[in-house]
Amino acid sequence: MRIITMQGRLMLIASMAILPLAIVCGLALYALAESQRAQDRATTLGVARAVATAVDSEVRLTVAALEALALTEPLGNSSGPGLAQAVRLASAVRRSPPEWLALVLAAPDGRLLFNTEGNGGNLQRVVDQDSLSQVLRTGRPAIGAMMPGPAGRLAFAVRVPVVRDGQTLQVLTAVVQPEAITAVLSRQRVPTGWAVSVFDSRERRVARNIDDARLRGSGPSDTLRRLLAEMGTAPEGVGTSTNLDGVRSLTAVARLESASWFVVLGAPADLAESPWRRTYMAYLGGLLVSLAYGALAAWWISRGVTRPMARLRQQADALGRGEPVQIEPSRVPEVDAVADALAAASLQRRRSEAERQQLLEAERAASVTAQAAQQRLARLVSAGAVLAQSLEEDATLRAIGELIVPAVGDLCRIDLLDSHGVLQRKLTHHFDPARTAVIAALVETRAAPADAPGTFPWAVATGRSFLHNIDDEGMPAVLDPQVRDFVQAFGITAGCVVPLIARGRTIGAMAVLQAESGRRITAEDGALINDLAQRAALALDNVRLFAQARAAQKQAEDANQAKDEFLAMLGHELRNPLAPIALALQLVQRRDPQAFVRERQIIERQVRHLSRMVDDLLDVSRIVSGKIALRLETLDLRDVVARALELTLPALQQRGEMPEVKLPADPVPVQGDPLRLAQVVGNLLNNAAKFTDADKLIRLVLTVNMAAPHPQAVLQVIDEGIGIAPELLPRVFERFVQGEQPLQRAAGGLGLGLAIAQSLARLHGGGITVRSEGVGLGSTFELRLPMQLLPARPFDTVPQAVPERRSLTLLVVDDNQDAADSLASWLELEGHRVRVVYSAEAALDALAQQPADGAIVDIGLPGLSGHELAARLRAQAITARMALIALTGYGREADRNKALAAGFDDHFAKPAQVEILLSRLLALHSERRVPPPT
């Protein structure tokens, strides 16, 4: 047997003792290194996941804000006042987030409806069509890729659909700067030296926490692309890559839930591997020292090695269990170095776990805050929609009460200021109707002091809110005695009183109180109540404005009715004296055609002139109020011209030469009212005759323009008269506008003829234009009317059938004796037997004694009116079938309809053409002679 010396045995013992220690330490160190690597990967992925969650929360907040805005009433309206209101609302919302470049509303075809930043220059369509298509296809929000806008600035689009009745009408977009994502990254607690980047759906770099401006818009490195390719569609992954700066990094990738974006976090490999690399070096050095030292002093250190190694194993186990590592000096440097490494690893692990826990808690808090904000915003949006449904005060107050009780409080009270600045009780709403009545009765019997905090007068006077819980310090002792009695009587536990302010004006106050539920009112509840109060104040102010507008509309309608009645009375009072004058002239002509010829002509012209002015006044009143009713038919415009020439013949005959008329050989069919179109052409001819000397030419030319998109009839009235000054041309068709005339006003008129002609032309779908080279150079008025493709009916210039001429027994009823007597004289000259009475009662007596074939009756009679007389005559068998014609100074369409409804067969306005009136009487008598069918 070989003899082994003590030294050898000691060396052998030392070697045998050191070898297991080296093996165990190496295995522990390897396990520690692997654990550290796994921990580094987990830590890196956890930070990346936390950053992705923060970015996702930011994007979701933007989407939530846009969805809330998309629910507002103005959105969904693409034109008119609704679109303008949407622009103002979007502009107000846009000013809140500073990272938003603009709010854009686009149609489904990509056209921009508005852009809060001035429509984006020349940009008329959206930049990112892919995200727009995604919203239209899915009906859900979408986050677009980052790309340059019209001004070259990089931004990305957050889009939400504007849905009405299940249909996407528009797409609302927030154009967000990448700095918004950079700000999110800057708020994250990322270890120093770690690089975090956010990439969009096209793998463009949106933001980076290091060197952001230089690398924005760049793509991932080649190694990162390979890592992304290996991940495929996995939501997250960890690997090794080299960034664009050439730094090899431990890389974690986490994808966002709300968009096809992803977050890349890179921890430099040197920082990640340095702890276990130092541990390896310490281990090797310690092992060598231990071997050398064991060879020299194995006889006394053998026992000093096993115990520290045992403690070291305990520390490793504690580290594996996640427990704190207790350091005990062993006076063995190698063992102490390993123990220190274990302690450092344990400390780093606790720090990483604490940081991860903080990130998770922050994520939970942000999520809770976002959900609360979204719920609050949804409630406010719902409140706005409910309050916008009515403009009646009671319905609006009831809607406010139902919004607040019981969702926000147990009791809601509202007082509003009246026109004298006195608070009036308007609403007391409790979920129990019986309790509502009790509270309302108590409130009605008490008047709150104006200087007591928490009362309605105090809130109105100071414009401040009052929010307290009954268990707050000093409550309820500081309350006014009346308020304290109210609190104690109804068990109030909390309350919030806010002034109602709309458009800068305090209109009342609102209180939200807690009682049966025992709920407290927090600062967040107070903010919600203030927001609801703002919307309630605006809704109540809208009710007030609507009531004022309705009262103003009623006043305007009353004024318009008074104006119509005044014009009708004016027409009546002016026409009444004209009728006997005109009849007297005709009587003079019938009795002696050669008597006073010139004087009669002068009087006839002035009567026609005054009659035309009265007609113009009534016509312009009907046109302005929209009461003109056209009797449309297809007719030949050439016949209209002939009728107009006939109507204006008295004015044209005063000239030395008749107008030169040029008409086409073929019919010119148009759709219109023949009388009104004749009035339009007649007004143009009268205007030309009035302002053209007798020796100057007037031409009337009718042509057809088939080259226009829609064929038009073109009628030109060309004169060589006084012309029109350039400054007067734009206003020549306005009411009461006339050119400068000499003091004697030989041309006369009210300045209404052209205004009436233009209005009637537009009612027929056409219009009148005017040209003039200046004063003294004549003028050209051009009437354009759309042509009809159907053949025109000839204008009825004469009656189709001439009634049989026979002597009638007639009764004239008029309180104007001159008018009645002159009309009776004219009828007697025509061979008829005429009786004259001056009241309705006298007419009834006269007809009772001797019936008549017909009667001509004035409407405005003393005692019984003409309408009442007609109704009584129709009710009597002996007079039921006699011809009745109303001859009155009331010439409106409404007056005609009223006369026909009363029983008259026809209605004539004074002064009437008695030949036509008599012809109508004869026709009616002929119809009455035919016996009714049995």
Briefly characterize the structure:
By secondary structure, this protein is an alpha+beta fold. Helices cover 49% and strands 18% of the residues. The strands form 6 sheets. Strands 1, 2, 3, 4, 5 and 6 form a 6-stranded antiparallel beta sheet that branches. Strands 8-7-11-10-9 form a 5-stranded antiparallel beta sheet.
Q: Can you put this structure into words, describing what you see?
A:
The protein is α+β, with helices and mostly antiparallel strands. It is 49% helix and 18% strand. It contains 24 helices and 28 strands. Strands 1, 2, 3, 4, 5 and 6 form a six-stranded antiparallel β-sheet that branches. Strands 8-7-11-10-9 form a five-stranded antiparallel β-sheet. Strands 13-12-16-15-14 form a five-stranded antiparallel β-sheet, sandwiched between helices. It starts with 5 loop residues before the first helix and ends in a 5-residue tail after the last helix. Residues 741-748 and 795-802 have low confidence and may be disordered.
Task: Give keywords.
elongated; 934 residues; five-stranded antiparallel β-sheet; alpha+beta
- Strand portion, in percent? 15-25%
Mean pLDDT equals: 81
Low-pLDDT stretches? 741-748, 795-802
Q: Radius of gyration, Cα only, in angstroms?
A: 50 Å
Helix content: 40-55%
Could you give the distance between the termini? Answer: 163 Å
Overall geometric form: elongated
Number of separate strands: 28
Oligomer: single chain
Total helical segments: 24
Which structural class do you get from the secondary structure elements? alpha+beta
